[in-house]
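pinging the channel bc i need a second pair of eyes. not urgent but kinda urgent?? the chain im working w is below, pasted from the shared doc
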Amino acid sequence: MKIRHKGSSGEDKIELQMTPMIDIVFQLLVFFILTFKVVAQEADFNIRMPAQASRSMQDISPQVLKVRITAGEGGAMSDLKLDGASLGNGLEAFVALRDRVRKLVDDSAGPTAAASLMEVEFDCDYELAYDYVIRAIDAISGYKEGSGDQARITRMIEKIRFAQTREPKS
């Protein structure tokens, strides 16, 4: 806050009022002191953990399902195989793939540990249209039950990998 006083020579003399500034500083100081919370220091605890189990989940190797998708003329799917067994070549092959994986996962009681131990390896032809790969991934990763507000998504296999790319047919 500035108050101007005219001096004897007609010049403006600016005088600073320090009292309001000091009041604000003290109010801020009180505010920060009152809002300061002391945090309890973390300490080390001496905890005796149980011995490691003889076999952990990491020791169990995942079951690998092999999905082979062969391409026909123009990138269309000519065959879909699960572990060597042919499931067909049309859209019904993806339904059959989902049903087979669902039986292997046994999701009747919801997601299980069996699903977390399973892994799918896709082996696709180079010429195969990408749409068929996505449909196969959809078929093994889960499905939707019900419709509208009552719809529920059930997850199946989440670990997916791809085999080394096959060279294009000459």
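so Residues 18-35 form the longest helix (18 residues). and Residues 2-35 form one domain. — does that match what u expected or am i reading it wrong
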